[in-house]
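ok trying again, last paste got cut off:
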Amino acid sequence: QVQLVESGGGLVQPGGSLRLSCATSKFTLDYYAISWFRQVSGKEREGISCIHSAAGSTYYADSVKERFTISRNNANNMVFLQMTNLKPDDPAVYYCAAAGGCTSHASGQDYWGKGTLVTVSS
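nice, full thing came through this time. structure:
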């Protein structure tokens, strides 16, 4: 059973930084690509970043490129999303998800975490 547990969400001021964590298992990191999605109420879930299981290749949506960084710690079975220069457009529930490969489509994910809320406000 693949389990994904997000943490690290919270309130941050515009321009601030936040690091999200996704706790999972060695099996998941070995065989699945891990993506971060975000969703605002009433809108579709948006794929924003992905890290491939084998090569560790990373992908970013244009909306977060050069501001967000995805990484993983294989020793602790964690995937992180370092978010910097947070903007008023970034507040959402952030989810990590697992799939056989990197895809920005929510329908292509096999497993989901329950999400963590990020709020950007002064």
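cool. The chain is about 5% helix and 45% strand. Residues 26-31 form the longest helix (6 residues).
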